[in-house]
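Course exercise 7: structure representation. Students receive a sequence record and must write out the corresponding structure in token form. The form below is the worked example handed out in class, using D-galactose 1-dehydrogenase (308 residues). Read each field label carefully; the graders check that inputs and outputs are placed in the correct fields and that the protein name is recorded exactly as given.

STUDENT ID: A-19
EXERCISE PROTEIN: D-galactose 1-dehydrogenase
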Amino acid sequence: MTDPIRIGLVGVGKIARDQHLPVIDASPDYRLVAVASRHGEHAGVPNYRTLAEMIAEQGGLQAVALCQPPQARFEAALAAIEAGLHVFLEKPPGATLAEVGLLTEAARRRGVSLFASWHSRFAPGVEPARSWLSTRRIRSVSIAWMEDVRHWHPGQDWIWEAGGMGVFDPGINALSIATHILPPFFLTGATLEVPENRQAPIAGDLRFTDAAGTPIHATFDWRQTGPQTWDIRVETEDGTLVLSKGGAVLTLDGRDQPLPPEAEYRGLYDRFAALVRSGASDVDLNPLIHAADAFLRGERRSVEAFTD
Ligand code: NAP
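STUDENT ANSWER:
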């Protein structure tokens, strides 16, 4: 029986409350020892305003989960690594590619584990889809990630600011699945629709291909009301695979495949514990590379102002 990992959490906001804190609480691999948040609180453990205070006062701390928006994560991650802590990064792992590279190198030098988490890869349909596709010739891929920003991100200003990524905040989840289940691909063109009063796109139309010339098309849109769509459809020579509901449902030629229940964050925390105990890191930048390429290579179209 190994001792639980003594973990602290930074940024008590939506995802910390919805997933991280309940999953840490339920896992035998962890003991939550403190949280750090400027506004959020969590009962039952010491609450600090900053990570620096938490590190100074919690001598036995071994790891931290960083649940702030991407623009705020680098500084905290570097401080945690330099303090000798293992670091769990929410997605996306940073606001730039280079900062995550720097963290990876810092973690290697300090001998701590760095985990760039991609929760959608732990959706129940993703590994079966990857396995089924690994032996098939793919003809085309169509991704539709369309949701209502007012429902999912009310009042979140950071998401509209530079580095917040706009519709790529959910869209990068689709990219995290696509980069896991498909052969390597790259962006050939994109159109980003940016509200005239914001810095980040509300919609994106992305075109990719791979070494075999396979057409891969993705539509991200935050203006969808009513039923929400998080689908990846892959046409192969042996039939059609559809991952829907963000990877929670898998069909092959229209037939539902039996899957275990959703447990994305349990899967992430199991993976982080395994990394910490084996002294390894897991930092896959591919989803962020595709998002960055869309900002680098895409055309911008100004669209009507967005107000909450
Ligand atoms: P959030 O509730 O808006 O922010 C999380 C916490 O980060 C806040 O409570 C705040 O804590 C801190 N924070 C906010 N803005 C900050 C800033 N500018 N500088 C420093 N700290 C700031 O966001 P969230 O929805 O939980 O998302 C956080 C991260 O988790 C994002 O990267 C997102 O992509 C990812 N994520 C979110 C969801 C979801 O369903 N919302 C799902 C999966 C992953 P204090 O002010 O108390 O310090």
